[in-house]
Amino acid sequence: MPKLDVLVADDHDIVRRGLRDLLEKQPGWKVVAEVTNGREAVEKTKELKPDVSILDISMPSLNGLEAARQIVASGSPTKVLILTMHHSDPLIQQMLKAGVRGYVLKSDAASKLVHAVEAVHRNKTFFTSNVPQAFLDGREKPPKNTGRDQALRLTPRQREIVQLLAEGKNSREIAATLGTTFKTVETHRANIMRRLECHSVTELVRYAIRNDIIEA
Questions:
Q1: Helix 146-153 to helix 182-196 angle, to the nearest 10 degrees?
Q2: Which residues lie closer than 8 Å to 177 by C-beta, 6 or more apart?
Q3: Among 113, 46, 61, which residue's Cα sits nearest to residue 83?
Q4: How far is 117 from 4, CA to CA, in rounded Å?
């Protein structure tokens, strides 16, 4: 079995410990970093360049899907594997658009995570559910889901701001987190509310939950 450096991102200590124990039982495998949110996952992946980064999809500050988008867009050689509690075709669609080639249901992690890490490391796909290869290759279009299609129309930065707003942060806190100005955040916020036809933060929170940006 080849040597592998792995990063684990999950906001639950017990889950990270369990994943570390499972992965480091494999000869030559090492967990080089454990992080608790997607923003840290992006930073540590760029810094350490692990072979595989395992990202929980539901994390604070930046969720696993947005973190995956940023890692792939950066040109990093690191392969990304998503952990999720639930399967849905629209979610698979978003993963594929983000450049993710595999995901594992948390309920299947004990039996399938090692195989999934090996597969994505070899540039293969690994999806817990039975997804047709034609779908993965883009020859079949995934089922439409108009309720979630809106998420695909937001820019990556807008999706980040939606998550932070839904987590209760105000515009000044978001500006500090993203390293931008209060005015820029306010402009994004107004554009987001108009595009999504949301009239309150409560509606935005509901939207974020429906579109897997945050977890209920």
A1: 150
A2: 39, 61, 164, 169
A3: 113
A4: 9
Residues 163 and 161: their CA atoms lie apart, in Å, by: 5
Name the percent of the chain in helix, strand, coil, to the closest 5. Answer: 55, 15, 35
Cα(89)–Cα(142) distance, integer angstroms? 7
Containing H/E element for 79? strand 79-84
Question: pTM of the predicted model, to two decimals?
Answer: 0.80
pLDDT digits (tens, 9 = 90+) for 55-104: 999 899 999 999 999 999 999 999 999 998 877 767 777 888 888 888 89
Q: Are both 115 and 187 inside the same structural domain?
A: no
Neighbouring residues of 162: CB distance < 8 A, sequence distance ≥ 6: 154, 192, 204, 207, 208, 213
Beta strands 29-35 and 4-9 are: parallel
Q: Is residue 87 part of a domain?
A: yes
Q: Which of 214, 179, 211 is nearest to 195 (CA)?
A: 211
Please say whether the beta carbons of 85 and 106 come within 8 A: yes
The tally of CA atoms less than 13 A away on the side-chain side of residue 186 is: 4
Q: Does residue 90 share a domain with residue 41?
A: yes
Per DSSP, 5 falls in state E
Q: For residue 151, what pLDDT is reported?
A: 52
Q: In the chain, how many domains are there?
A: 2
In-domain check, residue 175: yes
